[in-house]
Every structure is written in structure tokens, then in C-alpha cells.
Design brief:
Length: 230
């Protein structure tokens, strides 16, 4: 009896194993999911959603900064061309500069009448009352005109009249940058004076009567002449 029971149990266990095996082989088994594939699909889905969102809301996505173009230099043709109907400087002057006018070069205009002081003898100083002497001025002609001794002369023009003559001739012609010695007689009055003393002014006069050069002789004061002993 016991043997039959054991046999029955073994048969039942075998049948159960066969049923389980039949069930497992009759239906297809579900494959195990791949983790890497799932991650890839998730990333692709997220990228698609971001692309769609960016297309729907373009203002929310910051644009990359753009470079501002620099201003372009332009040639001012009006400043380099002569006005219509006018001739260029090259046509009037005969130069071959291509028709454009260059910077004007200043020209030097010589002085026609001019002089400068060089020397004097005697120098301005205190003199004795009643003295008679010649004062000599050395002057240089710095103009372009020659001082002709027949047309130019020396003239007393003001201040104290302490010379017996008011006009003197030039001793010779004086060309440009040449010098001349001009001598004038001086008579010191007999009455003593103090500062400002005596002063006399003279000028060279040209052939038109113009005073082209002025010079002076000053005596700051005078002292009495010694009294003669009887």
C-alpha cells in the first residue's frame, strides 16, 4: 500500500512537471528590456521636445551676439575737384600737377624802404654847457631801394632844436645792406639843465618826401662850464 502511494505521488509530480513545462513552452516568453536602448530613446525624446519648444517660443532662446559693422570711409570728391566751369590751377600756371590745386606757398615781399641802427658816437651822456661837437650815427639800409645821395637827405624832425642846420646831405649812395655815417652838428645851450635834459630827433627822407628812418640823440643833463680865471 505504501509503495502504491509513493508511486502515485511520483506520477503526480511528474505530471505536474510536464504541465508546467507545457505551459512555459506554449506561450512566448517576454524578452528582457535593454537599459542602454531605454536611455537613448529618452535622450532623443527630450531633444525632440526641446526643438519643438524652441520653435514655438523663439524669443525665449537667447541669440548669439552679432558684430556691429564699422563705418566705411568715403572719399569726398567735392573737396578735391574744382567747381564746374572753372579752370584748374595747372591750366593757368602751366604746371603738370594733374589739375589739382596744392597748398599755396607764401611768397616773401621785400621791404622797399627800411633801415636799422648800427652805432653812435658819442653815446648819450651828460655834456658840458656850451659844448659844440658832431654826433655820428651809423645806419644800415635794409630795404630794396638804393639811397641816392642826390635824392635822399637827413632832416631834423622834432624835439629840441640844438643844431645850427636842419638838413644834411648823404655823403654817398647807400645800396641795400650797406651802411652810411650820418654826422650832425650839436650845439649844447649855455644854460644848465637837469633830467630830462636835451633831446633831438632826425630822419632819413626818401625821394617822395617820406621819413623812412628815425634816430635820436639824448643829453640827460648838462653841467656848467668852468669859469675862466682872470
Amino acid at each position: 500500500m505504501q509503495k502504491n502511494l509513493n508511486k502515485t505521488i511520483k506520477v503526480a509530480a511528474l505530471i505536474a512537471v510536464l504541465l508546467v513545462s507545457a505551459c512555459s513552452t506554449g506561450e512566448p516568453q517576454e524578452p528582457t528590456p535593454d537599459i542602454n536602448v531605454i536611455k537613448t530613446e529618452a535622450v532623443q525624446t527630450a531633444m525632440v521636445e526641446m526643438t519643438v519648444q524652441a520653435a514655438l517660443s523663439p524669443s525665449e532662446t537667447p541669440l548669439p551676439p552679432t558684430l556691429t559693422p564699422l563705418p566705411t570711409a568715403t572719399l569726398n570728391t567735392d573737396a578735391t575737384q574744382p567747381p564746374a566751369g572753372s579752370s584748374s590751377s595747372s591750366s593757368s600756371s602751366g604746371s603738370s600737377s594733374g589739375g589739382t590745386s596744392g597748398t599755396a606757398i607764401p611768397t616773401w615781399t621785400p621791404v622797399v624802404y627800411g633801415c636799422e641802427f648800427v652805432d653812435q658816437d658819442p653815446w648819450d651822456k651828460i655834456q658840458m654847457t656850451g659844448s659844440i661837437y658832431d654826433v655820428v650815427w651809423t645806419m644800415r639800409n635794409v630795404g630794396s631801394a638804393t639811397w641816392s645821395k642826390f635824392e635822399y637827405y637827413v632832416k631834423w624832425v622834432g624835439r629840441d632844436d640844438i643844431s645850427p642846420k636842419h638838413i644834411y646831405k648823404l655823403p654817398h649812395d647807400v645800396g641795400p645792406y650797406q651802411t652810411v655815417d650820418i654826422a650832425v652838428d650839436i650845439y649844447i645851450p649855455t644854460n644848465p639843465v637837469e633830467d630830462p635834459g636835451w633831446s633831438t630827433e632826425w630822419a632819413i627822407v626818401n625821394d617822395n618826401g617820406d621819413e623812412i628812418c628815425h634816430f635820436y640823440h639824448n643829453i640827460p643833463s648838462t653841467y656848467p662850464a668852468p669859469t675862466a680865471t682872470p
